[in-house]
Every structure is written in C-alpha cells, then in structure tokens.
Amino acid sequence: MTPSNDTADVVLIGGGIMSATLASILTRLEPEWDIRLLELQGELATESSNPWNNAGTGHAALCELNYTPQAADGSIDIAKAVGVNEQFQVSRQFWAHLVDEGALPDPAAFINPTPHLSFVWGEGNVAYLRARYEALVDHPLFAGMEYTEDARVIREWTPLLLPGRRKDQPIAATRIRSGSDVDFGALTRLLFDDAEARGVEILLNRRVTGLRRKDGVWHLSTRQTVGRTPGDLKARFVFVGAGGGALKLLQKSGIDEAKGFGGFPISGEFLRADDPELVAKHQAKVYGKASVGAPPMSVPHLDTRVVDGRASLLFGPYAGFSPRFLKRGALTDLPGSITIHNLVPMIKSGLGNLDLVGYLVGQLLASKRTKFAALEEFVPNADPSQWRPITAGQRVQVITKEGVIQFGTQVITGADGSIAGLLGASPGASTAVPIMLGLLKDCFPDRMDGWEAEIRRMVPSYGTRLSDDPKAAEASLARTAQALGLQV
C-alpha cells in the first residue's frame, strides 16, 4: 500500500513495542488523528520485541540484583529498583485498562504469572541478599517478598537449582509470587491490531531513507524493501522507535539534540530448553549476581518463557559483539554511525571502558564447555543434550555526549517537539507506557491539560507515586493482577 500525499498527523517508524504503545495511547487521546506506521520488515515485532530476542521478564526489579547495588558501608540502594517497579506498575495499569476495555481480550496471550526469584551462593552474596531483602520487604511495591537460606524451601520453590549442589555451600533466595512473564512480541501485535482497527495505517517493508524538516513539517523519503518502489510522506510529528536503527535515523533528521550521541552494539546468546519434563521443574524466573567486572546487562538468569502458549527455559545471557545495530542489520551499521559530532565521545567511551571490552573478548573466546559451566552454577546436574544455543537480539547501548556508556534508555526530543526517538535497551519494553507518556508531555505540552482526564482513566496513578501511598499501591497491585490473571 502506498501512503497518500497528504500530511499525516503522526508517523511512527519501527514496528516494535514502543511504537505500538504510542499508537495505542494516541488513538485514545486523539481518535481523529491520521497516524501511520512504517516498518522495515515484512512483519511486526521482529527485533527487540520478539520474545526470543529478549528475556521477557516484565522488568519490575523484583529479582534483578543489578538494580540494588551495595554501598561500601554494606547498605543497599533501592532507589533504582523502586523507580523501575513504579514504571512497570504504570504499564500494568494501562494493559489492565485495555483488558477491561476489550482491546486485549485474552491477557494470557501475552502475560503469564511467573514467580520472580533471586538466588545466590557464597557467604558474601548471601549476606548481600539478606540485606537486600531487609531493605525491600516492607516497601509497598515489593509486598509478599519471601527470604530463605533453607535448601528444602528453595527446592520447593524451584527444584532444578539444588540437586548436585554441595550441601555445605551457603545459599539464599528471595521469591515474589506476583511476578510475570511477558511476551512482548504478542503484545506488540495485539496493540497494533487494536490500533489498526482504530484507523492507524500500517505500512510494512518500508525503509526510511531520508528525514528532513521543511516548511514546518517532516518530509520522509521511503523505499519499499520489496520491489524497491520509492515514496514520500509528510508528517507533523515523527516518532523514531526503530530500536538499534533509531540512532542513524535521528542523525538523518539533523536535529541538534541527537548530535554527539553514539551507540555501542552488543549481541547476545541464550541456552534454550524445551523438554516438557525439564521445563515443569522450573516455573520461575531466577536472577543471580553478575561476575565481578561484568556489565549490568550480563546478569545471569534462568527464566521460564511462555511463547504461543508453550513454556520453555532460557539461560543467559552470553554477550558477544557484532557491528550490526539490528539483528537483521548491516555490518556497516557501527562505522556508519560515527560522525564528526560523536567521534570524540565514541573514542572516550572506548578508552574509558576497557574492562567492558575485555569482558566481551572473553565472552567471544569462551568455549561451549565454558559457557555451559555458567549454567551448571545454577543447575549443577544440567544435561547438555537438553539445551541448545539461540541468538538473542542486538542491544545498542547509548553513548552519551560525555562519552559514557549508558545501560538504559534515552529519549531524544527535538527542540520544537515535532520529533522524538528512543535510544538504548533494558528495561525498555517493560516501561514502554511511562516512557511514552513522558514523551507526550515533552512533545505536546499544550495538549496535556486536555488529555489528563483520559490518561488518568487509563493509568489511575498518573502524576503520583504508588510508593508514597501504601493503600493505593496495594489496591493497584490487586486490581491489575485480577485483570491480567496474575498472582496478587
């Protein structure tokens, strides 16, 4: 389908969870707007939103230990964990609203109840996990957290972790039963189905080759990836939600706000097991501690994944390197992203992160046996014949204008609010709703007063912090759990 020549109100670039979320929100705030989606591939959610390209944890910081660092005095900083959890609750509220509305009629198609556990071994790590539990257990967003150092209890929680382990090894675990597993690929497609029914035009196999602002609107040059037919499109507002491809598109736009930013791509691999008997022994997501010197995204975890109604296990991640910015990208992506504006920050980030470079080299040189040994630290009796490697999605970590590698997400907004894009990775997908609401506030400040009532209907806690109101937190957790079919 060739887009018409008139000016669209909104053009979304990239068919992943971010664009799907923004489309879903905007069709409710402005049902008369002309909104169009351009996706490079022939189907939606093929990159980071694909369920096999990400951990699908439903990042709520319930078990991810990298969100609760320990200070030199032994205290635990819970600020990042609380912030991530707050954001995830906003996403949960929006999804629950769509379920109640009938837009997402079967929540089990994209979200399933899955306990979240943290598991550690060694005296120092046990002391850390105990301190973390004590710091979080009374927080309203972490209600129901359990802690144990009893091997028998841990065996009940997740039977795979104990057999074959030394009986004198100090171990500890926490559990929150209200965790979830999210298939963001399924959720993306469901959101776009709803958006399309509300009038959003979805254009697949469409590559954006040019992006420039002229006469108060954005002019997009496009080319079909099948047939190579060129096309032009105009838009009053553009959102670049193209995952690893977002940086190059923002550079094409020429906005000053994107100058100086760079990207560092990191590829990944997981071990996957599908044997039903094995999978039945591990109905949980279990996060451990990253090894000393390893980057935050390398935290090892053994996860239950539910995709298309079938459960599997994933263990990883194993980091690697590829110059591609997308899994289906080009080898020239990284060198092609280097400009006169970000050359110095890129060099500075490389010199300042030699430990990360060393870690990646070590991962690249690691043998199959070495990689499997990492799984055996979690599952001592793991059988190699039951596990196979799969390639995860590409993650392009943000390099800031100061030359710092940022392990998170970064919204880039043009000065006039007519264009915005998202760079970075985890915990991105799980926090898509608050990220998009923040983007709307930055880009459409003159409309927020008129939108606020509808936003509060979709997200009742909008503008407040559940952390500050234990009763509101309890009510929100219970309401969204009921709507989404999760544990309270």
UniProtKB/TrEMBL annotation:
Its EC number is 1.1.5.4. It catalyses: (S)-malate + a quinone = a quinol + oxaloacetate. GO terms for biological process: tricarboxylic acid cycle. InterPro entries: FAD/NAD-bd_sf, MQO. Keywords: FAD, Flavoprotein, Oxidoreductase, Tricarboxylic acid cycle. One of its GO terms (molecular function) is (S)-2-hydroxyglutarate dehydrogenase activity. It is an enzyme of class 1 (oxidoreductase). Its cofactor is FAD. Pathway: Carbohydrate metabolism; tricarboxylic acid cycle; oxaloacetate from (S)-malate (quinone route): step 1/1. Pfam families: Mqo. It comes from the Bacteria. PANTHER family: L-2-HYDROXYGLUTARATE DEHYDROGENASE, MITOCHONDRIAL. Belongs to the MQO family. This is Probable malate:quinone oxidoreductase. The lineage of its organism: Bacteria, Bacillati, Actinomycetota, Actinomycetes, Micrococcales. The gene is mqo.
